[in-house]
């Protein structure tokens, strides 16, 4: 009976385990997709390189680069693959199965846990943590000068953050969640509220668009990756957010291995999961991670005007209307007086705060008469 039960469990887990057993390793690693071939590349301990879905070992060729490769993130632009240090600064290119450094920037270590993305064939970093504080800056890599510059953004900005969730749809970047520096504790971080922000990239204008469902996206939830239509989250449950339907669908999770790194390629999830100190590479259909449908839920709630907001709006409109009706009187009131005045202290007539010395006695008598007989 025991043998039969063991065989049954092994049979159920065999597809996943056999896939993972293709490559087992220990230590630091960097997993990325090569843009030119669309194949996965895995570099272990900055010394061993495996490429392709079968993870065939190839030679490790590279120029000198700072820090360890597990501190780098990958971004694809066209057929080129770039490895950028997560703290900002050094930029490498994976070219012809070799790593080549393309700039000489120092390790800035200023934007760890940033939101990184590509727009108009340019690399951007938003937010992150470094130099004892979280950031809400947007930086961009200039391929001509081979340096980083800060990009100006407008309107009310989101609170500074690191480790934020994000996705890119068309020309809009969406950012939510993450942590920010706790001002009441020097070395502490605190979880951010449930606001979701939109950055329109052509205008670089921030807009607060609503709130997201924190009951679905909890602290331990990982965002796998995103494509044009869907966003995937893995926590205690497996969740799929559909941009077009504007709803999140929550399923049971079929596998509870700890994901350490992953990305999506079509409907295939490529990644590395951990069991203790061991690491396993795997490739599987994303749908194999979801089990029974639990529920569907609204993910983003748009801004709703409360009674307080309505009162503020109504008062503002009333004041604008009042100013419009009284505009002529206000102009007369605010317009500077350029006539002649009489100063009792100086006992003289003034024009623009200067004493008039050219009046004759007769002229002064006429002016005094006018002052005393205003009607």
Task: Describe this protein's structure.
There is one protein chain. The protein has four helices and 32 strands. A five-stranded mixed sheet has the order 6-10-9-8-7, with no helix packed on it. By secondary structure, it is α+β, with helices and mostly antiparallel strands.
Q: How large is the share of residues in beta strands?
A: over 45%
The low-pLDDT segments are 1-21
Work out the helix count.
Answer: 4
Mean pLDDT: 86
Oligomeric state as shown: single chain
Class computed from helices, strands and strand pairing: alpha+beta
How many strands?
32
CA radius of gyration: 33 Å
What's the story with the biggest beta sheet?
Answer: 5 strands, mixed
Neighbour order of strands in the largest sheet: 6-10-9-8-7
* Overall spatial form: elongated
Q: Please bin the fraction of helical residues.
A: 10-25%
Question: What distance separates the N and C termini?
Answer: 118 Å
Helix and strand arrangement:
Layout: H1 2-20, E1 24-26, E2 29-33, E3 40-44, E4 48-51, E5 56-58, E6 61-62, E7 72-77, E8 80-85, E9 91-95, E10 98-101, E11 115-119, E12 122-130, E13 133-142, E14 147-151, E15 165-169, E16 172-176, E17 179-181, E18 189-191, E19 195-200, E20 205-212, E21 222-226, E22 230-234, E23 237-242, E24 247-253, E25 258-265, E26 268-275, E27 278-285, E28 290-298, E29 300-302, H2 307-325, H3 327-334, E30 340-343, E31 348-351, E32 354-355, H4 361-372
């Amino acid at each position: 009976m025991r043998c039969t039960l063991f065989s049954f469990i092994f049979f159920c887990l065999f597809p996943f385990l056999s896939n993972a057993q293709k490559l087992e390793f220990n230590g630091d690693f960097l997993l990325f997709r090569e843009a030119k071939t669309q194949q996965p590349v895995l570099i272990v301990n900055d010394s061993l390189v495996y490429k392709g879905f079968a993870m065939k070992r190839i030679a490790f060729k590279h120029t000198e680069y700072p820090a360890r490769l597990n501190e780098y993130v990958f971004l694809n632009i066209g057929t080129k693959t770039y490895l950028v240090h997560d703290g900002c600064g050094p930029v490498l290119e994976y070219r012809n199965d070799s790593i080549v450094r393309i700039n000489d920037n120092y390790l800035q270590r200023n934007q760890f846990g940033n939101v990184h993305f590509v727009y108009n064939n340019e690399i951007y970093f938003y937010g992150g943590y470094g130099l004892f504080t979280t950031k809400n800056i947007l930086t961009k890599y200039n391929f001509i000068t081979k340096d980083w510059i800060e990009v100006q953004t407008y309107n009310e900005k989101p609170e500074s953050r690191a480790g934020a969730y994000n996705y890119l749809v068309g020309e809009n970047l969406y950012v939510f969640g993450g942590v920010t520096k706790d001002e009441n504790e020097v070395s502490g971080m605190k979880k951010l509220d449930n606001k979701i922000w939109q950055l329109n990239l052509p205008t670089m204008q921030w807009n607060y668009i609503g709130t997201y469902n924190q009951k679905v996206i909890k602290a331990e939830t990982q965002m796998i990756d995103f494509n044009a239509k869907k966003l995937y989250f893995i926590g205690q449950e497996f969740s799929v957010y559909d941009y077009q339907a504007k709803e999140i669908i929550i399923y049971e999770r079929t596998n509870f291995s700890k994901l350490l790194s992953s990305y999506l390629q079509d409907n295939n999830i490529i990644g590395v999961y951990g069991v203790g100190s061991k690491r396993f590479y795997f490739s599987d259909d994303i749908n194999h991670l979801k089990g029974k449908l639990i529920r569907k839920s609204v993910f983003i709630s748009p801004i709703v005007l409360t009674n307080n907001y309505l009162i503020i709006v109504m008062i503002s409109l009333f004041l604008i209307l009042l100013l419009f009706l009284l505009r002529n009187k206000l102009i007369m009131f605010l317009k500077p007086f350029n006539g002649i005045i009489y100063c009792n202290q100086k006992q003289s007539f003034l024009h623009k705060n200067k004493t008039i010395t050219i009046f004759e006695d007769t002229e002064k008598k006429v002016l005094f008469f006018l002052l005393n007989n205003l009607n």
